[in-house]
Structures are given as structure tokens and as C-alpha cells.
Write a structure and sequence with these properties.
The complex is a heterodimer of chains A (107) and B (386). With 107 residues, chain A is α+β, with helices and mostly antiparallel strands. Chain A contains three helices and five strands. Chain A starts with a strand and ends with a helix. By secondary structure, chain B is α/β, with parallel strands linked by helices. Chain B has eleven helices and 13 strands. In chain B, the strands form three sheets. Chain B has a seven-stranded mixed sheet, sandwiched between helices.
Chain lengths: 107, 386
């Protein structure tokens, strides 16, 4: 488990962006809004909207390369202009490596 | 959204009690300010923490002889000493009975011995948070040599009828180990009225000592061989481990600050009185049960705990998420997950784990109400999403 400190607050728009790469659950009435994002086989993020930190839990078997993808998610959302093209490409490459690591070469 | 301004509400006392009574911190400091002594040193005016510690523990537990008290690092250390020491004295494979309520401090050593082919193991299940003593008695075979069970469940807060089990085992060649980690300091104990062979305690929970001190009371050490050897400060010319108590099991330099903290913790409990402690614990437990029961989105696993331990889940929410929300939004510390009791959780929540609340003497009623309201708020929002 790692606590990530961000230089800006987590916004609903950022969550709209990352939900393309995993599942997102929200409890909007709790505080500013509790959210949990899960990228299957990779990591999960939980936190509150409008906070500038969140908690990340990595699947340890693939953490050596999924952590890079987490940084990519943040990088590709810089200034609220999501770069889907770059992140889609990295996501595809990441999931191929994750599947190989976790399940061998089976597709 | 993190409300840093909210004062911390600590409800994880079944793991480690916090805060400690002021006298405990002072006692630890004093123990470190003194030069080491306790029988081996040559200094004057030093406190004999070992003798004082054994006498304090024995008196508090109603055990007649302080000589039966052995110090260890914690309950897990004590249980390993007892379980492995007992097995080491038994050349033949034998049958062991334990329960599905147990902590991994019991389950893992026994599982290890089962895998090694040293024991046959039976886990007795529970109903309504209790193990029926009859079920244990019925599981006894002519090969049974050891029974290990807890006195109080660290998840369900139920107290087991060790008296009935002990009475049955008393005249049989079966060693009976009781894990009192959760009851010591919470309920009045009169060990002189209970038949057992070894009773295990830990210092850092309801006895208000510091982490790193625990021990056991053992009445007949003969069947439990020492499994670790070393310096005892006695009979040092011999290369054999001394066979008497406590040298049979206590090796190396003692945890003097830990023993000092344990003495101070127990002294604090005695100054309050066990009746007053239990009344407050019962009141706060009932408060939680009543409040949480009023919210339809909360599952309480034992609505009638005898210890201040309340286990629950909020359907539709991971127990870890509930703990996270409480910590981050309300500054409330609880414990989530399996609580080192995997077999228990298989029976109550399919192994998913739950949220555990455990107040202490230092928890106020107001803090309990704030925590209950915070939990109900989470449940209310989760319930409305379903």
C-alpha cells in the first residue's frame, strides 16, 4: 500500500478519465465523495474527491511495471486534457505484459 | 476532505491498547533509568522486576504460586513454546483438538506440525460465537494428547466455557492450553478455580503493558520440553538447559521495561477494579450493538459479545474500504480484514473479513457515539446505492 501525494486535487473529470482503464465505484454522499478505482490484476486506488492524495494497492507480482502505468495515468491527464491515445497504447502494452507474467503466454 | 481537526478515536484495543495509563509510561522510563539488576547484577536498591512481575501476574490471575508464571515476548511466542515443547516430548504421532475460533498463533504452529506428520488435527466449529464443550469432549479419542483453545474470541468477543472443558480433561492424560490473550484484563480471572495445564496471556492488550511482553502460567511443565536454550544466569557451569521454572523456558536477558509496564498496567487495572472496568466495557459494547443494529445496512456477527469487541460488515462495501473511510474522513481507527483468524472468517463471512471495533477503559461514551454515527452514515450511503 502506498499513499500518493498529488500536486492537485482529484476531480470528477479525472475519475471520468481513469474509469476507461478499470472499474470505478463511488459513494458520493460520504464527505466529498469516496471513490475506489480497480484496474484488474494491476492495482486499486481509493480516496476522496477534492483531496490531493490517494491510497494505492499494487498487485505485488506485477508491481514492477504497473507502477509506471499509474504514473502514466497521472501524466496523461495533465492540465485536464486527457491523452487517450498515449495511455491506450501503454495500457495495451501493459496488459499484455501483465497477462504474460500472471498467466504465461495463454491469451 | 481529511478532517485533521477531528480528534483521534482509537477503537483497535483488541490488537494493542492505546493510550496506556500514565503510570505505565513512567514505569518503563524508571526501569530504563536504573542499571540492570534483577538477581544477576550487584547493584543496591534496584527493583527486582522479575519477582515483582511474577507476583503481580499470579495475584491478578488468582494463581496461587508466582513460580508458575513464565515471561515471553507475547502470546504467540508463549503458544509456540508450549505447542512445540509439548510435541517435542512426544515421540509418537498424537491427536490434537483445537477450534475454528483460533488465532493464527495457534492455527499456524498446529498446521505446521500436521504437515510434518507429527500430529492429527481436528478443528471444532462454533455456533452463535461459542464452541460447545460437548463437541470438544466428543472429539477426544484415545490418541488425543493436546487441546488448545482460546478463552475469548478476538473477532466475535465471545468467552468460551474453558471451565467445562478443563474439568473433563482434568483426570485424563491430555494437556490443555488456554489462550487468554483477549480475556486477561477484561474479565475477572480466578485461575485457581479452573483446570488447565497452561494459560497464555499477553501484556499489550487489556493488561495495558507495552508490546513485547507476555507469558504463560504453567502448572505441570514436565510434558513441555524447552525448545530454545541459552543463558539463564543460573547453573551456568552446566551445558544443559536448567529444568526448573522459569529457567526451563526463559532464556537470555529479560524484557525488564516490558515487565515494568505489565506491573504498572495491572496495578492500574486493580486501582480501577475489574467490576468498574467490566461495567464500562459492557455499557459501550451495548451502545455500539444498539446503534449499529438500528441501521439496516449493517451485519453484526455476534450481537451479544461478552468482551468489548464488535465485528460487523456493511454489505456492498469491502471491509477495508469501511476502515479507510473511517480513518480518512473521521479519524477513527478500527481493524479490518481477517484479524489473523482465517477459519473463523470462513464460517462467518466466507473468508472476506470484517470490521472490528474494540474500545478500552480510555474510550469515552461520546467517542463511541461519534464512531457509531460515522459507521451508520457509511452504511446508509452504501445501502442507498444497492
Amino acid at each position: 500500500m502506498k499513499e500518493f501525494i498529488l500536486d492537485t486535487e482529484v476531480t470528477p473529470e479525472f475519475l471520468d478519465f481513469i474509469k476507461h482503464y478499470g472499474s470505478l465505484e463511488m459513494l458520493p454522499g460520504l464527505g466529498e465523495g469516496f471513490y475506489k478505482f480497480e484496474k484488474s490484476d494491476c492495482f486499486s486506488i481509493k480516496g476522496f474527491l477534492n483531496e490531493s492524495s490517494f491510497e494505492v494497492r499494487f498487485k505485488k507480482e506485477v508491481m514492477d511495471f504497473t507502477s509506471d502505468f499509474l504514473y502514466s495515468m497521472l501524466y496523461c491527464y495533465q492540465d485536464g486534457k486527457p491523452d487517450f491515445n498515449t495511455l491506450n497504447r501503454r495500457n495495451e502494452a501493459l496488459m499484455k505484459r501483465v497477462r504474460t507474467r500472471l498467466h504465461g503466454n495463454k491469451s | 476532505m481529511l478532517k485533521k481537526e477531528n480528534p483521534l478515536i482509537y477503537l483497535n484495543n483488541a490488537a494493542t491498547s492505546w493510550p496506556k495509563p500514565p503510570g505505565v509510561i513512567q514505569a518503563v522510563q524508571e526501569s530504563l533509568e536504573l542499571p540492570f539488576g534483577g538477581g544477576r547484577g550487584t547493584g543496591k536498591a534496584q527493583r527486582d522486576y522479575l519477582t515483582e512481575g511474577r507476583e503481580t501476574v499470579a495475584h491478578f490471575f488468582g494463581e496461587e504460586s508466582p513460580d508458575t508464571i513464565v515471561f515471553s515476548s507475547n502470546a504467540t511466542d508463549a503458544l509456540n513454546t508450549l505447542i512445540h515443547g509439548f510435541t517435542a516430548s512426544s515421540p509418537e504421532k498424537f491427536h490434537v483438538i483445537t477450534t475454528t475460533l483460533e488465532h493464527n498463533s495457534v492455527l499456524r504452529p498446529l498446521h505446521h506440525l500436521e504437515k510434518k506428520g507429527r500430529i492429527e488435527l481436528d478443528h471444532i466449529s462454533f455456533s452463535n460465537a461459542k464452541v460447545n464443550p460437548e463437541a470438544i469432549i466428543e472429539a477426544v479419542t484415545d490418541k488425543t494428547r493436546l487441546v488448545v483453545m482460546n478463552h475469548g474470541s478476538n473477532v466475535l468477543g465471545s468467552v468460551q466455557n474453558i471451565r467445562a472443558v478443563g474439568e473433563y480433561l482434568h483426570d485424563k492424560d491430555i494437556f490443555f492450553i488456554v489462550d487468554g490473550s483477549q480475556t486477561a484484563g477484561h474479565i475477572p480471572l480466578d485461575l485457581s478455580a479452573i483446570e488447565f495445564d497452561a494459560f497464555v496471556f499477553t501484556g499489550h492488550k487489556a493488561l495495558f503493558g507495552m508490546p513485547g511482553i507476555g507469558g504463560f502460567c504453567i502448572r505441570n511443565p514436565d510434558p513441555v520440553l524447552p525448545v530454545r536454550m541459552g543463558g539463564t544466569g543460573t547453573d551456568s557451569g552446566s551445558l544443559d538447559q536448567p529444568g526448573g521454572l522459569p529457567e526451563r523456558y526463559e532464556i537470555g536477558t529479560h524484557n525488564y521495561p516490558g515487565i515494568a509496564s505489565l506491573i504498572a498496567g495491572i496495578t492500574f487495572l486493580q486501582s480501577i477494579g475489574m467490576d468498574a472496568l467490566q461495567r464500562r466495557a459492557d455499557r459501550q459494547t451495548e451502545l455500539f450493538i444498539k446503534e449499529l443494529s438500528s441501521e439496516p445496512g449493517i451485519t453484526i456477527y455476534n450481537p451479544d459479545p461478552e468482551l468489548p469487541i464488535i465485528a460487523f460488515n456493511i454489505p456492498g462495501l469491502d471491509n477495508d474500504d469501511v476502515g479507510y473511510i473511517l480513518a480518512r474522513k473521521d479519524n477513527i481507527v478500527v481493524r479490518t480484514g481477517l484479524h489473523c483468524a482465517p477459519l473463523l472468517h470462513k464460517e462467518i463471512d466466507d473468508g472476506a473479513g470484517c470490521v472490528r471495533i474494540s474500545p478500552s477503559w480510555f474510550t469515552t461514551d461520546e467517542e463511541c457515539r461519534i464512531a457509531a454515527d460515522a459507521i451508520k452514515e457509511i452504511a446508509h450511503h452504501a445501502y442507498s446505492q444497492i
